[in-house]
Amino acid sequence: MLTSVDADLMRALSDPLRLRIVTLLARETLCTTHLVEETGAKQTNLSNHMKVLREAGVVETEPCGRFTYYRLRPDVLAGLSGQFAALAASAREATGNKRSCP
Fold first, then answer.
1. Where are the alpha helices (DSSP H) in 1-102?
2. Over residues 7-23, mean pLDDT
3. How far apart are CA 61 and CA 53, in angstroms?
4. Which pLDDT value is given to residue 86?
5. Which of 2-6, 15-19, 28-32 has the lowest mean pLDDT?
6. Is the Cα torsion angle 90, 92, 93, 98 positive or negative in sign?
7. Which of 24, 29, 35, 44 has the most Cβ atoms closer than 10 angstroms to its Cβ?
8. CB atoms within 10 A of CB 60
9. What values do phi and psi take at 62, rounded to 5?
10. pLDDT of residue 80 exceeding 90
11. Please, which residues have CB within 8 angstroms of residue 73's CB and are 6 or more apart in sequence?
């Protein structure tokens, strides 16, 4: 069963820029400067999106001098993926189930 935490995670991933950021971070750990270069977003806009992803638990930070590096948390995405897999399995099993109308 999906929870409100899962709904918050899906909301965080629903923005096109945040989804692009997650896709980039799936390949490597990047700092804010790299993400600005890769996405073309303004630094302040990117920072706001990173805050949403951090609060949703999708990314974690690693301070390195005056830079902040971001790393994807694959366990969080795998957990959400598992929830969707369970929903799909339930839907397959319930294909013939139909509640009759009163």
1. 4-13, 16-27, 32-39, 43-55, 74-93
2. 92
3. 11
4. 85
5. 2-6
6. positive
7. 35
8. 14
9. -140, 105
10. no
11. 57, 58, 59, 60
* The two structure tokens encoding residue 61: 């930070």
Phi-psi group of 18: left, alpha or beta (phi > 0 → left; psi -120 to 50 → alpha; rest → beta): alpha
Residues paired with residue 60 on neighbouring β-strands, in sequence order: 71
The pair of three-digit structure tokens given for residue 69, joined into one six-digit string:
């590096």
Give me the residue label for tokens 């945040």: 18
Distance CA 30, CA 9 (A): 21
Residues in the chain: 102
Place of tokens 């638990």: 57
Q: Tell me which amino acid residue 87 is.
A: L
pTM: 0.82
Would you say residue 14 has pLDDT above 80? yes
Residue 12 token pair: 């965080």
Q: How far apart are CA 57 and CA 77, in angstroms?
A: 9
